[in-house]
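Retro notes (design track)

What went well: tokenization of the new backbones is finally stable.
What didn't: we kept losing track of which sequence belonged to which structure.
Fix going forward: every design gets posted as structure first, then sequence, in one message. First example under the new rule, 219 residues:
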């Protein structure tokens, strides 16, 4: 039998890791899970060992673990840990071409009736085309990829990305049995209420917005 070295770590996120080392197998668990029931730890152990062996864990283990981490108490502890220990590195919201605070305020007034709470806004440090937007509930922040802050990008597309992240504020992650539901049915229905939704989706799928403004407008 291999030797296991298990310890809790003060991480900013609710995550766990398992690695094979020369001296045995190292397991690191977020201290956010301190005090949870042994059944949850057993479920997490199965998930980590399944990851190590590159096979899926049982539905029962996933359901047990998700029921714990998506419970209000653990979610609150995770958000508090994220605020205390982590930070959200972003550039100021007033970019060279677009001001994210102005866009947020306009969308909040027009499409949310000013019901969304104010969040931190900023441009990402990296110019990512793969991740155009991200909502961080622990820090109450929305980051938009800096690649969109360009005169070649239509304002409609930036508004659509910001609107999508605002919906994550309105519809937090839910649990459906053994699955995490990031985009619920209500989320998708609300997303389709964005003005010129189909045109914005065509722009996004075309991928031409970062290269040529005119071609993006014709999409």
């Amino acid at each position: 039998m291999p030797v296991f070295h298990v310890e809790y770590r003060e991480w900013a996120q609710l995550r766990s890791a398992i690695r094979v080392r020369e001296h045995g197998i190292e397991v690191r668990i977020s201290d956010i899970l301190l005090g949870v029931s042994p059944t949850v730890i057993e479920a997490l152990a199965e998930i980590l060992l399944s990851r190590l062996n590159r096979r899926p864990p049982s539905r029962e283990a996933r359901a047990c673990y998700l029921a714990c981490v998506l419970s209000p108490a653990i979610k609150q502890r995770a958000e508090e840990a994220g605020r205390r220990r982590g930070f959200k590195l972003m550039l100021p919201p007033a970019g060279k071409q677009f001001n994210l605070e102005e866009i947020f305020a306009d969308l909040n007034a027009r499409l949310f009736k000013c019901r969304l709470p104010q969040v931190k806004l900023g441009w990402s440090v990296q110019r990512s085309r793969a991740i155009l937007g991200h909502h961080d509930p622990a820090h109450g922040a929305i980051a938009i990829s800096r690649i969109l802050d360009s005169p070649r990008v239509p304002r409609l597309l930036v508004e659509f990305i910001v609107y999508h992240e605002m919906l994550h504020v309105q519809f937090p992650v839910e649990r459906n049995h053994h699955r995490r539901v990031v985009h619920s049915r209500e989320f998708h229905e609300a997303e389709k209420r964005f003005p010129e939704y189909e045109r914005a989706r065509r722009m996004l799928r075309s991928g031409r917005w970062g290269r040529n403004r005119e071609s993006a407008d014709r999409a």
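Added context from the reviewer: The radius of gyration is 21 Å.
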